[in-house]
Please model this.
Amino acid sequence: MHQRHLPASPNWYCSRCSDINGKGVLGFGAKNTIYLLNVTAASPAITGELSGHTERVSGFAFCSHDGQEHICASTSDDKTVKIWDSEQKILLKEHNVHQSTISAVHWSPVQKLLLVTGDEKGIVVCYWFSSNDTQSFFPEPRTIFCLSCSPHEENYIAVGYKDGMIVVIDISKKGEVIHRLRGHDDEIHALAWCPRPREEPLYGRSEDNADGGSGATEGAEEGCYLASGSRDQTVRIWSTARGKGVMTLKLPFLKRRGVGVDPALKERLWLTVHWPKRRPSQIVSSCFGGEMVMWDLMKSGKQKWSLLGSSPDGQNHSRIVFNMSSFCSGDRELLLSTSMDREIKCWDLASLECCWTLPTLGGFVYCLSFSPVGTGCLALGVGDSMIRVWNTLSMQNQYDIKTFWQGIKSKVTALAWHPLKEGSLAFGTDDGKVGVYEVYSNKPPQISSTYHRRTVYSLSWGPPVPPMSFVYVRGSGGSGDKPSYSLYSCAGEGVIFQHDPWKLSGEASNIDKLIRDTNSIKHKIPPHTDLSWKPDGSILAIGNEDGSIEVLKAPMLKLLCTVQQHHKIINSLCWHHEHSSQNELQYLLASGSSNATVYVHDLRSAIETPSESPVLVTEPFRTLSGHTNKITGLAWSPHHDGRLVTACYDGTSQVWDVLKEQPVCNYRGHSGRLLCVQWSAVHPDLVWTGGDDFTLQEWAVSKQEHITPPKSKKRVEIEKKRGPQKKSKKKKKAPGKGGMKPEESELPLGEEMKGAAGSGAEEGQSDNDEEEEKENADGPSVTGWSRESSVDTRGTETVQNGEKFIHAVKREVKEEKKREKSDLSLKKRKPRSILPLSTSMDHRPKEELQQDCLTLAAVRHSHGQSRACVPGSGDHIQLGLFTDRDALYRMFQEEEESHLEAGHYDSMVYLRLWKGDLIGAINLAVEKGELTDHLLSLAPMAGYQVWARTVEAYVKQLCHHEQFLKAASHLLSIHKLYEAINLLKSHQLYREAIALARARLQPEDPVLKDLYMSWASVLEKDGHHATTAKCYLAADSSFDAAKIVAKKGDVMSLKTAANLAWISGESELAHSLSLRCAKDLMLSQDWAAAQEVLRTQDSLLGHRLMFCVNEILTHRLADTDVVTWTVASSHTWSKSCEENFLSTVHRVWQSEFGVAAADLVKVKMLHQQLRAIENPPATISVPMKQLLSHISLDVTLCALSQLLCDWPSTLEELLQGLTRGSEAGHFTLMTEMCQLLLPQGLESVALYKQKLDASDERSVAISQSVEAFVCYQLMYKKWWNYSDKTSALTNNTISNGHHLTENNHNEDEAECKGEAQSDGTFSEGFWKVLLSEPHANLQATQRAIAEIQRRVTSLIQQHSQCKETHVSPEALNTSQSKTSEEPGGSTSGNSSESLATLTAQVAEHHKVLTAIPELIRKYPFPDVMECCIVFLHMEKHFTLFPQHICAEATTLLHKYGTTESLCKAWQRLTH
Model:
């Protein structure tokens, strides 16, 4: 389905999360999905996914047995083991024997279909796939990090643990430990068995050599070598025959890492090892910073290793490597590696060079942008805080991608290339930052000093507007320094900033001020959500949160029109490109919102001929319906006219033919929601899409099997693929597997803290947590695992440890309750003393108490302190109560210090109060947060200033305890009314704040309005529209009140909002809302209610007339096949009658609406009002009710022109009403409209022609077209009528069992022909009208241009197929030659047709088209060739016509009916 594909990043900190089978299929776990790649030495290709786990995939392995290579297994944090068929991509079996997180997995290379897994509790589970049997072992009570099955002994399994222990167990002996291999002192990251049996001698450092000397191991022994990689920076080789280590390899300190190594570097190391199958004396291991080294175990000396990718072009990984696996491709052995740098690399183990690199993505793909200057240069904004720039046209490397991360600390949510400056890329982030990167330099980005408060949604380069344009005009002094473009950014808070790209350090300007000043706007401007500059920089389109779109003219941003089509937040806007063959297409604006419908508006009239006041646009040029969720991205094809691609939350991307209003194809390759889309800048058939499944996909439009988006149930299937949206249980991953300490998580890319949770991504690769930016624009930004979360996860691992932990918690809770009860009983028995130290001295032995009496007597009679005793302190603290005040104060001081240590601040306050130190007591209570109402009541004793400060401190304390109402009341006591109101407002207590403000402030105080507006903003976000409207009304913002009531969009809300706006004097808004409400009622056929709504607005009289015509027309067509629905309500005057249709309309207008020919000024005003309404051309897909509405507008204009006696306009508008049915492919509707508007047929046309000026070319052309369409439908009626008569004549050759005589039969046939000849309809003038050669010439030229365009498209597709299948140009020319020689080939083609030839032919046809008079081209006309064919058919079978007319029809067919389809039709009907 897709061409190229950037998958999600492989998961981090897993011992075996990727593997490759013998057929070259690589599988790796990314988030909760397994991706499959076909690997060759030239390039990789994504072949599919395996989805089913609900949490992070922690392990993946292929079965290595012949014929079973397609069988694979995966483990997950959801504690399940799943067995898959990688070819069929289906789940075969699964088991959930493990009760803890699974950390290791491996297929046995010897024992067929044996899968071994280990978990963090130390349980090893053996699962036999064929018999579905399981067996569990518990060799050691340690955390398992990795395991590996022996390739030579079917029962041996090596297990590596977190603490550095390695054990080899025998599963045939109930998991008996054969060897315990001790030597490592930290986590075992990987284990690898030697592919060759028996232990051949190795040259290296033997573990038995105490002096560290080197020597060769002795002769070959039974057993097999085992290699292990550990976090302690060593690789060890073990002898399983002797159960000891035979070689230790220390990681080299490579020059590219500098002379010294950071001591903390050990914590970030992941040391994986791999033993290639064809190299028994060589192993590959990862190193410190992404390097990979190959160790030669047979080499002597210190230099035993060789560096992979040693060439200077930087082939190595830039971050630590997690997994390695190899396979043999012919004579070459290839090694695959995954790394923290989010790249998958393929290495040739013979040359040690990198064959290719596949970048992967660690976050949502939020935005895409093709450079308008650098052809094929695609920029990606990804949620892993990085920008990727992809040269999609690179011939040497199809994944030629550069990564940029400097200066970016959050998700990249918006991108925009500079229109002229090569390599200048603007970006916006989730934390509101805006900057500019120069991608062809190594400099860090320039960051704007103005930050948004929320996520940046969109960026756009456009011409400077005031005040920036004024600044450069004044400051440049004509030196030409004025920048041609400014950078505009729109973010979640609803603000658009204009940044100066030459001076990003300066303050950006908010363009809302310019919009207000230029357009004199007084009401609240709705929050902005998107913007798009027209490619020529003359017009700016702004999308808003309320679904409206404002179109403004640069440079002063004058409002030209407002599009009121969407009723939900605008997510995307896009102007059509300017290099179209049809100049009017550049005025098409596509818009997508959260209501799943895409609207395209033609704004040509509003832009080219702007009116004095802004125009309200309520009718779209095209409506594209089919998606089932919010629209997130739009892109026009730069290679086609009117070809649009959309991205949607329903998980699909849709290509539309906008001009035909038809779907072209639907892409469903993503497994999540789509966030962005771009059409290839160089290939007309390729589209790029990115989504929240962490992938970027390139796909071809012509290769899609689906045409339309899926039904809404597809969304359920997508949600099943993505798994349940539940919060993952945080596990002790950071210190366990990643070796990450919280204080070490700040690294250059900010990824270790995310990877420490075992994810490899900030957006939750360890689980399926998702985010909703534009769905909830005010929500906090989820950026991944924070430093605090890493700390918190340490204590939560036991949540998953089973029932024992739950019981332990219950016991702890019971014990805690018991302690609380005992403490409570103690408090009841005896209150705490305020003088605990002196009181405790009374509980000493009797002898000491008596000695206190002697000491006290000595002190009192010595009239002071003795040298041996200081009353109130030390061992004599208790005597302070019985001597003087100084001794008492000393005792108080020591008691206070005791209370301070014990945290009894209330007792300290009481002691200070007793001393009379009121200020000290208050200050202490303030400092410790122990103020009480009692202390506050005493504060006035210390003076007003002390009391006021105490109240303020008490208010802060109450706020800390969330007692906001009480705090506000205390502020009132010190006359701080505004502070009290602000306090309530800041804590969302708006109702109370308004009540207080209303009670105490003047009505005109601006604080009141601010309160109402702030509360309205909060209520609006919560969906309380009625209360929001009341707030706006109270704040004298009636416009906003009406808008918020109308936001729900139902009929009742719109009607209420319209009345509210009318009462408030907002006439334009009342006009708009009433019209919206009436249109909704019209669609439900409630005509009485629709007229009732419009009656309240005098300015909507013209629309009332149009609705009246629509109602009468609906009743007149109720007896035909056109109207198939029932009418909910109608008026008595709309019932069908025998009166002429237009006469009925005029009569009802005069009696019900007071509109008559006598009041010409009024009629002319109504005509101008309705003429300004956009009435787009009809298409086949237009619903019938909407089509009748458009026809009603044409008929209303026709009737008004008739009252004005403007007969050319009358006939022109009548012609538009007639032809809409034909344009929509509804012949019956066109016939019925002819009967209603021209009941006498050609006679009615003749009456109109008498009122026209015969010398006026326009009038003649219009009357000719009307006459032609009347003749057109009459021609078919007569044909079908004669066909029925002839068939009846044939069927009646047998009557009552007797054959009619031949004479009778001939007489009847002659009678039929005579009737035809006598029919005035088939006069010579009748056929001359239809057989118009100028119109035949015009239509033939248009058909020829369309045919050439079809051949150009076919030529491009053949060229694309030639590239993909490597067909030679000679073969392509041969196939074209054969095609043109076939009978069905085009008559105008030749064997050497080329693009240049076709272009020349188009130019010739355009010259012919230009030579045709404009009036011929302007007005529609029936297909002349079709009329000629029908005429010749009728002449042959039914009647005789003059020979010169037959000859004329035949001549026209020979001259203009040369296309293949016309020739076939001619031959079929006339031979």
Notes: The CA atoms of residues 326 and 335 lie 4 Å apart. Residues 1257-1291 form the longest helix (35 residues). The chain has a mean pLDDT of 82.
